[in-house]
Amino acid sequence: MQARQWKTALLDWASNFQPILRALVLVVSCLTLVLLARHAAADGEVIRTCPVSPALREVQAKSNRDDSVCVAREPRAALTASPVCNYFDAPNEAPRVRVLCCVDLIRGTRQRGSQFRCFPTLLLVGVQKAGTTAVFGHLLAHPEFRPPSVGGKSVKVLKEVHFFDLTAGHQPNKSAYLEYFPDIGGAPQSRDGRRPVPFVSADCSPSYSSSYDALKRLRDVLPHARVVLLLRDPVQRAWSELNMRLRQLESQLEWRGLLSQHAAALAMCLDTSDPVQIGACVPSEVRSNPRWQNFLRKKVLPWIMNGSLSEILSDQQELQTEWLYAGSDSSSGVVLDLGSGLASMREEMQMITGCIRAGDTLLRRCFLFQRRNPAQLTRGGYVLRGMYLPQVQNLFELFAREQVLVLFDSELRSNPNESMSRIYAHAGMHPGHAYVDPAALSQQSLQRRLHAVLPEFGPISGWQLDSETYDVRNKTARDPKDNRFTAFARERREVEDELCAFYSAFDAELEQLLQLGPLPWRLDRPRTCSKS
Ligand SMILES: Nc1ncnc2c1ncn2[C@@H]1O[C@H](COP(=O)(O)OS(=O)(=O)O)[C@@H](OP(=O)(O)O)[C@H]1O
């Protein structure tokens, strides 16, 4: 065949196949477009949201699926809008409504699968030292409850997430908050986007209630939260906090003593070992102290990384200060002894009284101590945290009244079953779940129970149920020879009388605001406050 004939034959063949080629190009383009669209959705768009509507609620109630939730698929970066929340009425129980706000976080096109996490339904916002740990202990025993946690391989249960109080000045990162709550990414999902969510979670950070800003951030992120506030006689609460601070001081001093005792060996280890070897080099007495890991992670490794180790080691004064506070339980509220704690209490009472006298009739404004006078909190907050009136005013301003459940610690102690049932019902959990005998609420038994219910979780760290080990008042009586306490015995009694008088001035208004009848501590005052 001639070259020209070849060419004509080829053109004939191509023209016959042109429609097929066109179709092929079309199919490939469509496929590319679909893939591109999926990629874009995964990386930047909200795929579907399911707004709360009465109709949806009705459908869910009828469908008998109180534990399912309509899911929003949102990529991590786009998680700025409020999460999608749904309400569920449990049809076969006494009325209980569970509010679930969940997000399906798409990990991106390269990583497979997604994380499905729900915001906590229950926020136990305070007050500090009113029995919040006991409530958390009870919650752990409820089959519908899963605690927040941190950590990769060794998961640690968290009672207090401290997300809203420690993010001051920043836009709260909702994705970061969600990371604390269980990922149930593997749960099956039906075609309509629902999937079973058999549990609720809680954030029991008792410091939230004492900061207006924290509560506001909380409300902005979780407008549907079910909030619980525990109240306790503010005088007893103040002592409990001082006991805690003194306990922390005692353990800090013990740590400092340990480090001073082994200073030479430690300095040598820090100076010569590479970071991996340090653990094995330091004396075992130091290594076995619970503060060691914290010290290593938060202090030593950063010193090594930023090259300041030799400078720190050469300055004994600096080293002592660093060592004293390394791994401290709390950087705020450091007391030097019982006397300085009592002085702090008096100072705070004066500050608040002055604030009220200065014409700041709206006590709440006076009380915005985190914004107005951050230094106050570093001294303790023994009295401020017991100022319940402004805290309750803030809560009632930010949340609907039915979202807030106020309970007294005395109720929790005398009738834990009834108190916990109310908390469960408030959070939409089964209210009839048998409560745990408070006598069994010890750290060890909680740990055992946690492992039995949730074997995947590791230790519960950083909290204890009572301060029997250290009680300013009892110690004074029990140990008259201990100068650290006897020296302040008279002053302690005086401060107690002052606290009683100080707080009594707010009782009537608090009673009126709460509408829960007489405050339990008001009835108790003749016994607890000598001059009442
Ligand atoms: N079951 C029960 N009911 C009520 N109160 C209880 C219960 N168990 C412990 N406690 C007492 O609670 C005090 C500690 O409170 P918190 O757990 O809220 O402390 S913290 O804010 O988490 O540090 C702490 O008070 P003090 O002993 O006076 O310090 C505990 O004794």
TrEMBL record:
It comes from the Eukaryota. The active site is at K129. Keywords: Transferase. One of its GO terms (molecular function) is sulfotransferase activity. The keyword Transferase applies. 3'-phosphoadenylyl sulfate binds at R232, S240. Transmembrane segments: none annotated. PANTHER family: BIFUNCTIONAL HEPARAN SULFATE N-DEACETYLASE_N-SULFOTRANSFERASE, HEPARAN SULFATE SULFOTRANSFERASE. This is Bifunctional heparan sulfate N-deacetylase/N-sulfotransferase 3.
